[in-house]
Each structure stands twice: as C-alpha cells, then as structure tokens.
Amino acid sequence: MTADHAPRQPGRAMWVWRLADPDALVRFALAHGIDRLFVAVPVPVPAQLDALARLVARAHASRIAVDALGGDPGWIDEPAWPVEHWLTPVLGAALFDGVHVDVEPHAHPGWTGDQARVGERFLDLLRVLADHTRPATTLEADTAWWFHRILVGDSSLDREVLRRVDAVTVLAYRNRAAGADGTIALSTPQVRAAGELRRPIRVGQETIDLGPSPVDRKQTFHGHTKAQMECELRSVERAFAGTAASPSYAGLAIHDHAGYSAMAP
Questions:
Q1: Which of 70-74, 83-87, 246-250, 254-258 has the weakest average pLDDT?
Q2: What is the dihedral sign for C-alpha 238, 206, 64, 26?
Q3: Number of domains in the chain
Q4: Relative to the CA of 68, which of 41, 130, 165, 241 has its CA 20 to 30 Å away?
C-alpha cells in the first residue's frame, strides 16, 4: 500500500459550508473531537483567501487538518471549469491539507433520463480532478450509500469512484446506527469495498433540518441532543474501528457545523 492510500487513523471530520469566526470554530472542533475540517472555498477563490488563511493557521496550531471543500453537479458537464476556476487557485494558495469534493451526480438534471451517461461523466470529472490534484495533495469525494447498486460495466459506481480518488466519505445518513435501515447496514457495502481497494473511508452523518416527512427525519439527528447522537455514533465506531473486516475505516464525518453547533447538549 502506498503512503497516499494508507488507511488513516479513525478520527472525526466536519463539513463547514459557511465560514465562521475562526477561533470559535476551532474551539468547537476541539471540544467535539473534530480533527479535520472540510471548509467550503467559494468561487472566486482569491476573495476568500485571507479569511481562510486565518482559519487554517488557527486550526493547524491546534493540530486540526483543513481540506478545501467544493463541488456542484454542474461540474459534471464541464470538468475544465472547476479545474481552472476552483482547483488551480485552491492548490496555488498552498493552505490546505487536502481537497474534498461534494459533487452529487443524482442531483444532475440528466440523472433520471440517462443515469449511465451522467454516471460516466461524473467518473470522468473525478479522474480529471485527481489528475490535477496529484501529487500536490490528496482528493477525497463524497458518495451516496446506495452507489453500490448502480452498475458501471461489470463494476459498480462506488468501486469506480474509489478507484479514481484517494479516499471517500459515504453519506449513510440515518439517526440510528443499528437495524436493516441503520447507518451501519447502509455503509457496510462501501466500507468493505474500500477495504478491498485499499482506500480510506469515512462514514458521514447529518445534523441539519431536512424537512418534516418521516423519510426526512430519519436521515438526520436534527431535533436530537448531542448526547443522543453520540450514543449512535459510538455504535458506528464500534462496528468498524479496529476490526479485520474494515481496515480502511477512517472515522466519522459530521454534516455540518451549523447543524451540529445548534444541537442541545
């Protein structure tokens, strides 16, 4: 196994879509065991660099890694655009510990009508981003838990994503760890695939308000306390951490800072 693809020690990451006060954000991360931040870097990148530099400096002083976060389904149609307008200035800033992309092909307007074509173009985008990211740093991508059900030739979408990036975060959004529809069961296929392909994998969990329906509510810890969520997160960690069946498990990722920080203790 190369150093780029070595399993990471299980930790906790957190998405940060809105740049908050750097000191308060770092204090929150330290108090909640967060050792990596996925921080959104909007376009145009140079306009945000001073604020981002302050955050990165404070995070690094507290031994918290910071990855540049970006992505949009529209990137699938024109991979050269994010390379020129987002990735190149992100890498040129020399601030970040990695690159993290959240590009959801199922949110692309063409997905319903031509899933195979959109899926192939999504994989092409990841290849282009990886080609321009390496060897400067690593590329991590978010995946939906059901990507193993999407066929790509004689393979599956989750495995083809894993082959193109250095690590993934599987969005297995449920507010229960156990059961057939719980986080552990939903994330297990990708955790196993990541182990076979020797790629680190995180398990993502949700905290924002997704809506009032039963389907919406079961996908998020919104309305739960942090203590209630922590009980479920520990079950996920026990299921995957340190076991021979999941050598690539790299920990949890919480979406996102706004939702998490609003939760009652």
A1: 246-250
A2: negative
A3: 1
A4: 241
The pLDDT value recorded for residue 49 is 92
Within a domain: 257? yes
CATH number for position 175: 3.20.20.80
Mean per-residue pLDDT over the chain, rounded = 94
| Residue 28 within any structural domain of the chain | no
- The predicted pLDDT at position 10 comes to 84
CB 194 within 8 A of CB 200: yes
- Range of 247's domain? 73-262
Q: Find, among 263, 265, 234, 256, the residue nearest to 25 by Cα.
A: 256
